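Weekly puzzle thread! Below is a chain. First person to post its structure in token form gets bragging rights.
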Amino acid sequence: MKKILLIESLKALDSKHLKEFQDFVASPFFNKHKETIKLTNFLVKYHPTFNLSKETIRKLFYKNTKISDQQLRDALSSVMKLLNAFFTQKGMEQSLGFDKLFNLQFCKNERIELNYKRNVVRFIKEWNSKNELGFNAQLVDFLLSEQQDQFYAEVRSLSNKDFLKKTAKKFDHLFIAQKIRTACQLKNWQNVVEDEVEIHLLEAVLNYVETNQSTLREVPEVWIYYTIYNTLHFPGNRMHFDELLQLLKIHSPQFQISEAQDLYRYAQNYCIKKINFGEAEFLNDLFLIYKDQLQLGLLLEKNKLSQWHYKNIVTVACRLKAHDWANEFIHQYQNKLPQEEQKAAYDFNLAALHYSMGAYEKVFEGIRSLQFKDVYYQLDARALLLKVYFETKEFEALYYLLNAFSVFLQRNKTLSGYQRVANKNLIRLAKKMSKIQEEFQVNTKEANHTKLKNLIQKINATNPLTNANWLREQCDMMIHNI
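Winning reply:
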């Protein structure tokens, strides 16, 4: 069934917003067409599935009335226009002071002078008390400062030098922060796609910040993005990362959620990259970053936690052996998972916790009974059983699993090339490691040591490879037992 833009847009709204939209459409200020109100109310009745096609609407809403395709498109277009106007209204309500700026602008343009003069003073006083941070906050702050200067000019018939200096300074801070912010975004992007992008004036801006550290440290937006840039540009210098963590602790609650999420994502990705390069000490930093984000509600989207955040947090907690915390988290956030993902995510992560605690029988009980629809859970479940079979020295079951795992990778057409190769490499190296373990008592200590060292070299040289840390840990344990 061909998707209809209006239906897909309505589908994304919750019950509260749909009711507000119905009220919006029913308001004569926004809409005077009764037929549009009826059509809107008809469509909303099909929440939450909105299983509607144009033919269904024609048949159920218009019934015996003959209506051409063009007339139907026009009717749906009328509702869509109102929906976009509703989105604008809601966006204005959620904006950080822009509604007040538009109020001032309208009053000024229409020469509603008394209201303008009263509001500009009140809005500036109210805004200064908020102490908000971030791009939108800087932009509103600058524009309000402009309004203040214009207000002064209106009253005194000339501009005020102090207000102009203040406005210019705020614009400088806005420009510097956003120039460095853009540089950070591009630097992150270049880590994924090898493509150099020239950022004009960046060197001059960075030199200016370096020269004026004493004053710009007092501008949180500038200093946070400058610190992020240094963290990305000098990844070997932990000092910048530590400073970033301190700044996030102090200032992140003052940023809007979307920008605060981006700030924490830089710190999070930095840790993950370090961990992937074998610097396990960053696991604890990553754990604390996840905890901070949970406390601030930054990992929730519409009050729901992504199953992948859920899994990543449990994985990090288990690697740090924070089992009590992980167990509490798994149960506490179970109901925050999207309904359709809840059971699989809860069951798998509970099994992963049991594995980390060495409760292998509970892993078997949990995994064997599960029916994972998501292909990535199917991969992770097989990898988890692989670990259990190896660590319990159930080699017959292990080899059977590895063969079945190989067949699964060959037959499954939904896997990405990366995932297919990464898991094939896991199977290949796990077989080699299992062979060494099986012959451990037969071979000499020297032979075992040489084989394990060679295998570690192969593990380090293999890319892509999933569960590389686990393979290295098992090899190290066997070397320790020689």
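Puzzle host: Confirmed. Bonus trivia for everyone else. The mean pLDDT is 91.
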